[in-house]
Specification:
- With 863 residues, the chain is an alpha+beta fold.
- The protein contains 28 helices and 24 strands.
- The strands form four sheets. Strands 12, 13, 15, 17, 18, 19, 20, 21, 22, 23 and 24 form an eleven-stranded mixed sheet that branches. Strands 3-4-9-6-8-7 form a six-stranded mixed β-barrel.
- A hairpin with a 5-residue loop joins strand 3 and strand 4.
- The longest helix has 37 residues.
- It is globular and about 125 Å long.
Length: 863
């Protein structure tokens, strides 16, 4: 290796040393012959005759090492670059087309590598699995005692750790000398960190005895450590307040550790959660009706080295079914054992695959275009390699820039996207793609050149490549159009889905609505209720405010569990196997008026609906259809799922409102029950203020903040935004995906247009003699125009027909990404061919105009 590097870097010195060494051997051999009586001249001639030319020997020695291959490659590249400089127009167009395809492919590959291909930053990540609710794998949870019982008998798992589910149980108020903020915490069992196999970057993690003794200790995330303590090593030992209680910092986790949630800020012992003392842990719960309210824990396990996923699933099913029979005969949700890597990549896998296929199609279209140019100009193989490598280099630059933009504008739900970059894997991929591109666009021209009949050129003219070459270039254009149809069809379906999502009936009016989350830490239920009532009263008095209300959760994007009413007056309760999603929300003030939701029948809540008044509820249309189909629900009475305290009384329906899509724009409206805050089970609830303004909502935000601050200096204000911004965030993943696919489709459409332009441009040049003869025989310019346009449309129509057939077969794999349209949407499959037909006509217009202006006399002298 060292000798090869010296040969490359010190070629003159190495050549001189080699000359001296060969001359020395020559002199020694000549001296041996001179001892036999030969003259020096004859001896030297005899040695050269026997040993061959020194230059030949030098060449053999040079080619024996690996450095000769590098030097030969470098010489070919320099020669190719000089040749490319002789045709700058061709070179720039070809390099840019390939660079766009290679750059886009490399950028998306780097994202796929970071999200899907790179191993998770845990010990033996393939052994990590999540135990999830089969009906609700994202937010579903279990009873703590069920997990503990399973751990005691399980044989397929080496270890199982428990943590509070990602919900209000883990959202806490954090204070560390600055303004309090709501953060996402994790309350986990002590075996959580050993199970994950990740050591802290600083300090230590908590021990089992600290969990047992409920020691107030906390391990910070890397982000919180930087944000709150500027990355100081002195942070260890300091204290922060979690929900008003001091906790000592004992460690900091690495930046790559982001579990259970991606925005995880700290980890604390399971037993230090404020809900740990709930009686449900030590007393039996009503299994038929209240189990959902106490299913607060989720579990992650590590499979035993000898256990398979199928074995773990079988054991889990058996144990939980046995528990269902032995305990209180309560139906326990179905349990699914899912690999952690599958869960983390579930929402992005198909989307990234579609994007990668899209950029690959763009690259294939680029290669087809360059192959057409190579066929037209008869480019040598060395120039093909130079084109691909130069395009690969520029493509890497485009990939780096595009990747930064992609990360900046990407939605926050793509895991580990921030780790994507142009690293060694991306460089290797770009080099492989560059060489593959050279093979794709160079193989066909080389094959055609080897089969070229010299008679074709003699018969059809010097500038013509012959009928065979013309057919080959036409096939390439047809291929480009077919690929563009597939890509445009996929983009069209996503665009149609996005437009359908934008036009969905929300059930409320988002215009001129301001939202803000307000929390009051360390307050009693009574003082908290008084505070929120005072805030709404003051806000309603502000100028430009039409209505103000509050709800415990603005949206329920994580979904809600399947529930049923515990009792319905005059009829038997709903069987549990017929339960579906049901949302229970608590509101205050003029919530419905602020949301712009219509009251269909009945009345709104009033100040008379207090804790000592009969319990009342407002339901939506879905709730009315579910429980009282064909009846008037007003005055009907029912009981909910939580019989704690005095709330075991009947609730009376006093109003019916329109369905609202609080569960997300893509989900059907969930049946809702709304209760007044004054009759809530407890006062330990934060909430989102909803304010409808008569003017600019952003202008009212400052006045709203000031009002809240005047009433409480310790209140935590967060998520100040308009309702329209909230809705825009919900559709940001779909907007991002649609925008990218639309961009790649636009590039493909332009490249297809360039391809047909190139074919017609060279076709007109080759057929100048023929066009001149046609003109001399009486053909009109419009006849020539129709001739050229007809050739273009034939190529386009063939490509479109093939592309539609392929699109019908491939778009069905995108069905799960669509909303409001089918995978064979007729509007899309009609619009795409029309659009590409127009592109074909536009691209062929310039060559057609050139053909119309051919002078018959000049054309006849052309060859």
């Amino acid at each position: 290796m060292a000798g090869g590097l010296r040969a490359l870097l010190r070629k003159e010195q190495i050549s001189q040393d080699l000359d001296e060494e060969l001359n020395g051997f020559l002199e020694m051999a000549a001296e041996e012959k001179m001892k036999l009586g030969m003259s020096r001249k004859d001896a030297l001639r005899a040695v050269r005759w026997e040993r061959g030319s020194p230059e030949t020997a030098k060449e053999v020695i040079r080619t024996a090492g690996w450095e000769s291959l590098v030097e030969a490659w470098w010489q070919d590249l320099r020669f190719a670059a000089r040749m490319l400089r002789k045709a700058p127009g061709f070179s720039v167009v070809a390099i840019l087309m390939l660079a766009v395809g290679i750059g886009a492919d490399s950028a998306i590959f780097s994202v796929i590598q970071a999200v899907s291909l790179r191993p998770l930053p845990y010990k033996n990540p393939k052994q990590l699995v999540l135990l999830t609710d089969s009906q609700d794998p994202v937010s579903g949870a279990f009873l703590f005692k069920d997990i503990e019982s399973f751990k005691s008998v399980s044989r397929s798992f080496a270890e199982i750790a428990t943590y509070y589910r990602d919900s209000g149980f883990s959202r806490v108020v954090l204070t560390s000398g600055e303004e309090p903020e709501f953060v996402q915490g994790a309350f986990v069992s002590a075996n959580f960190f050993p199970l994950m196999g990740v050591a802290p970057a600083l300090g230590r993690v908590f021990a089992p005895e600290e969990e047992t003794q409920r020691e107030p200790v906390v391990v910070l995330s890397h982000g919180l450590w930087l944000r709150r303590f500027d990355g100081s090593l002195n942070a260890i030992g300091k204290k922060i307040q979690i929900n008003g209680l001091p906790s000592q910092i004992i460690g900091v986790m690495p930046a790559t550790f982001q579990f259970p949630a991606r925005d995880q800020q700290f980890w604390a012992p399971l037993t230090t959660n404020r809900y740990w003392d709930d009686p449900a842990l030590t007393t039996n719960v009503d299994p038929q009706h209240t189990r959902y309210f106490y299913e607060r824990w989720q579990a992650i396990g590590r499979l035993s080295p000898s256990a398979t996923l199928a074995q773990a699933q079988t054991e889990t099913n058996t144990v939980f079914r046995r528990s269902e029979l032995e305990l209180d005969k309560a139906p326990i949700p179905g349990i699914t054992v899912t690999p952690l890597r599958v869960t983390l990549r579930r929402n992005t896998r198909l989307s990234l695959l579609v994007l990668f296929c899209a950029v690959t199609l763009v690259l294939l279209i680029s290669c087809s275009n360059v192959a057409n140019l190579v066929l037209a100009r008869g480019i040598a193989r060395e120039r093909e390699m130079a084109l691909s490598l130069l395009a690969g280099g520029i493509g890497l630059i485009l990939a780096h820039v595009g990747l930064r933009l992609l990360i900046a504008f990407a939605p926050p739900d793509i895991p580990r996207l921030e780790q994507a970059g142009v690293d060694r894997g991306t460089l290797v991929f770009a080099l492989a793609v560059s060489l593959l591109a050279a093979g794709i666009f160079g193989l066909l021209p080389a094959w055609k050149a080897s089969r070229k009949d010299p008679g074709d050129s003699l018969r059809t003219g010097i500038r013509s490549g012959g009928p065979s070459l013309t057919r080959t270039r036409s096939v390439l254009v047809i291929t480009e159009f077919a690929l563009a149809v597939v890509l445009l069809t996929g983009a069209g379906l996503l665009i149609r889905s996005f437009l359908a999502l934008e036009a969905v009936d929300l059930g409320f009016d988002p215009g001129r609505v301001l939202t803000i989350n307000v929390a009051l830490p360390s307050a009693t239920p009574e003082s908290r209720n008084a505070f929120y009532d005072a805030v709404l009263e003051r806000v309603r008095a502000l100028p430009g405010i039409h209505a103000a209300g509050q709800v415990d959760a603005l949206f329920e994007l994580a979904g809600v569990g399947n529930l049923g009413l515990r009792a319905i007056e005059g009829r038997p309760p709903e069987p549990k196997d017929q339960w579906t999603a049901l949302s229970w929300a608590f509101i205050r003030g003029e919530y419905f008026q602020a949301m712009g939701t219509s009251l269909l029948r009945g009345r709104y809540f009033t100040s008379q609906d207090g804790p000592d008044s009969p319990l009342v509820a407002i339901i939506d249309e879905s709730m009315a259809r579910r429980y009282w189909p064909g009846e008037d629900p007003l005055g009907k009475r029912f009981k909910g799922q939580d019989p704690r305290g005095h709330n075991d009384d009947w609730l009376t329906v006093v109003g019916i409102v329109r369905n609202m899509r609080r569960g997300g724009l893509e989900n059907n409206p969930t049946p809702h029950v709304f209760e007044p805050y004054g009759q809530a089970l407890d006062g330990d609830r934060t909430g989102d203020l909803v304010v409808r303004t008569t003017g600019n909502s952003h202008a009212a935000a400052a006045a709203l903040r000031e009002t809240v601050r005047e009433l409480s200096g310790t209140a935590i204000l967060s998520n100040v935004s308009t309702m329209e911004e909230q809705l825009a965030d919900q559709v940001s993943p779909r907007r991002f995906q649609t925008s990218l696919l639309g961009l790649f489709s636009g590039i493909a459409m332009v490249l297809a247009g360039v391809g047909i332009f190139g074919v017609l441009h060279y076709s007109v040049a080759q057929r100048t003699h023929e066009i001149g003869i046609r003109g001399a025989l009486g053909a009109r310019p419009t006849d020539v125009l129709c001739l050229v346009l007809g050739q273009a449309m034939r190529l386009a129509l063939w490509g479109i027909a093939i592309g539609i057939s392929a699109g019908l077969a491939l778009t069905r794999f995108m069905a799960s990404l669509l909303f409001g349209v089918g995978s064979t949407d007729p509007v899309t499959f009609v619009a795409v061919p029309v659009l590409l037909g127009l592109v074909s006509l536009f691209a062929s217009y310039v060559p057609a105009r050139r053909a119309m202006r051919v002078d018959p006399m000049a054309a006849l002298r052309y060859e």
